[in-house]
Design goal:
5 helices, DNA polymerase, domain 1, SDH_sf
């Protein structure tokens, strides 16, 4: 997948909605990510986020706080790249 392939605003809107989580901490990471990347979001970033959104809230938080590293099917570059972006401080 091309790193520069931009996604349509409607896709971004649906993705933002699907990224809403039950834990406030996860929501804060997501809000910061979208503030930073929403205008330039690529298909590759969308893919990584969608894979992360399949996780339970506590498992996602462990990854966001770097308490754990991605394992199994999540141990792929697209997920690791998005995690780096999600973990970036303000």
């Amino acid at each position: 997948m091309d790193d520069t392939t931009r996604v349509e605003p409607s896709v971004v809107s649906r993705l933002k909605w699907s990224c809403r989580r039950g834990l406030l901490e996860n929501d804060l990471f997501m809000e910061r990510f979208f503030r930073r990347y929403e205008e330039t979001l690529t298909a590759r970033q969308v893919e990584g986020l969608q894979l992360l959104m399949d996780l339970a809230d506590n498992d996602l938080l462990d990854l966001l706080l770097a308490r754990k590293d991605p394992e199994g099917s999540l141990d792929i570059p697209v997920v690791r790249d998005v995690l780096v972006q999600l973990r970036q401080p303000t």
